[in-house]
Amino acid sequence: MNGANDGRSPPSSGDVELDEERSDSGPEPRRPPIYVLEGNTLHTRLTRELGVNYPFVSDGMPFVALPPLVIAVSEAGGVGMLGVAPEPADVLDARLQAIRAGTQKPFGANLLVTQGGGQHATTREHVDVCIARRVPVVSFQGELPPAEWVAALKAAGLRVWIQAPSAEAARQALALGADALIAQGRQASGINHSSTPTLALVRELRAMTDTVPVLAAGGIADGLSAARALFHGADGVWVGTRMVASVEAYAHPGYKQRIVEGDAGDSDLTTVFGSAWPGQRMRVLRNRVVREWTGREGRVPMPTPPPERVASTRLFPGTPGSTSVDVPRFSAFVPTPDTEGDLEELAMPASGASMARIESVLPAGQIVVELMERARRVLADPHGLEADADEDGRG
User: Alpha-carbon distance 283 to 192, whole Å?
Assistant: First the structure.
């Protein structure tokens, strides 16, 4: 086992019971309590720094990772990350208040930094909201954040994590002062700039620095894939697709079911959903529009011809500013429970490598505990973890 997972425990938090989970659409039926299991051997630099039980971080997926998912993951002993979609700073503030009302455990906010991000692209105002609300972790996905944002967050005592799809991006992130690196492999869902398999990138970044945590992102969906990432040098796992297929994820039921039914070859890298973010490559489920246009995205007509509208959805759900909007063709809007329209025309971020390991939609807390406890058992007898057995390039 690598030296990052040394068995030292964080401060004990006691058993955590999650006896009722809620979503933005109202209370869910009562479920059996989910208990954090103490005394496991998966304590890493990440768990010691944050005082959490498991080196598990749920991906801050825009549109999908709203307060109920964040709360459920953090209460189960991991780190829930809020997905900050392009939305006004006051919506972010309302979501952070909802999270604080639901858990006192560590959590984070994941900010999307892109060129041409539209009307509500991430701004310094969003950063200031995170500072005012004392968010324990602020992560950045997409492009590198401005140095002044990182400096302001760190001066306020907040941890800054930066997604790194390559060794060069990791060097730049460290130069900015990143407190952790998210090693985004080519298997990762959503916006993806990587050409390196996840485990190979983890090893590259681990060799680059032994002073900050490295999180493995891409293809992590069960105990075996988590154990393999920890064995290869990761201090924790960053889990996306598996969490879309959770009860608390704010994803359309049809989207969740497609992830359950999907396999390793059922995702693609494409720039077809670039009407708002031109050139942004995404790993998504292979549906009709992806099959039709991937490989010839340069011929996608802009502006789009009729029918321009392929669905309708609701922006900023669960907040006073919530509003209904039309979804145009080739839009990066992710289908949520509020979405009505043709899923064959919509962007559904997903990793094929993860879908191959997902068999059902489960409560988020159950996913965290079962995945981590399985990883612990695998690492107790790590025979066979040396090979990159699952990294066949299909995503």
Answer: 6
CA angle centred on 218, ends 344 and 41, rounded to 5°: 135
The pLDDT value given to residue 4? 44
Rg (CA), the chain: 19
Decide if 281 contacts 98 (C-beta within 8 A): no
- Condensed to tens digits (0 to 9), the pLDDT of residues 317-349 reads 999 989 999 999 899 999 999 999 999 999 999
Answer whether residue 19 shows pLDDT above 70: no
Q: What is the pLDDT of residue 119?
A: 57
Q: How many helices (H) and strands (E) does the chain have?
A: 13, 16
Other C-beta atoms lying within 10 Å of the C-beta of residue 66: 26
Predicted local distance difference test score (pLDDT) of residue 229 = 97
Q: Collect all residues with Cβ–Cβ distance below 8 Å to 32 and sequence separation of at least 6.
A: none
Widest Cα–Cα separation across the chain: 60
* CB contact at 8 A, 214 and 202: yes
Give one DSSP letter per residue of 269-329, joined into a string.
Answer: EE--S-SSSTT--EEEE--HHHHHHTT-GGGS-SSPPSP-EEEEEEESTTSTT-EEEEEET
- In sign, the C-alpha dihedral spanning 315, 317, 319, 324 is positive
What pLDDT was estimated at residue 36? 56
Total-model pTM:
0.89
CA 342 to chain centre: 25
Q: Which residues pair with 22 in a beta bridge?
A: 27
Contact yes or no for 245/259 (Cβ under 8 A): yes
Q: What percent of the chain has pLDDT over 70?
A: 85
